[in-house]
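User: Teach me something about this protein's shape.
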Amino acid sequence: MTEKKPATPAAPSPIDPHLVETLGEIANRLDLSEIEVAQGELKIKVKRQSANAAVPVAVAVPAAQQVAAAAPANEGLQQALIAASAVKSPMVGTAYVRPSPESPPFVTIGTQVKAGDKLLLIEAMKTFNEIVAPQAGTVTSILVEDGQPVEFGQPLIVVE
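Assistant: First, the predicted structure itself:
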């Protein structure tokens, strides 16, 4: 008869992606200049200097965890910040950033847009659907390429 060893639980991630996402949303929604959270040796600090500036991020982790945790921490925080101000896909389809292959794109990074301005097209079931800016602002990121398949809820363009 063989004895079974109890399964050892996986080590919890030092970064809680949900917490980081929530902090990014809070900072964006309340236009905060700084949020800092500490859990043991782990500290997360988010700053917002102005509505048009990029959000600098400082993540301090213990030396033993630096290599393993640095990439997921930055990636999770970046995703949270994108999610807070991104225009998301309302459907599954193919995204097009220009009206035709030989035309210039609807918008580029740095373009000032007004609410209702056309940002891109999504083709679904042979129908082209206009995706428009929900608010006035500046295009700070274009997260899709021309002709790229997209999923429902996928961030497409960041307008701040």
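Now, about its shape. The CA atoms of residues 111 and 152 lie 25 Å apart. The chain is about 20% helix and 30% strand. If you'd like, I can walk through any region in more detail.
User: That's plenty for now, thanks!
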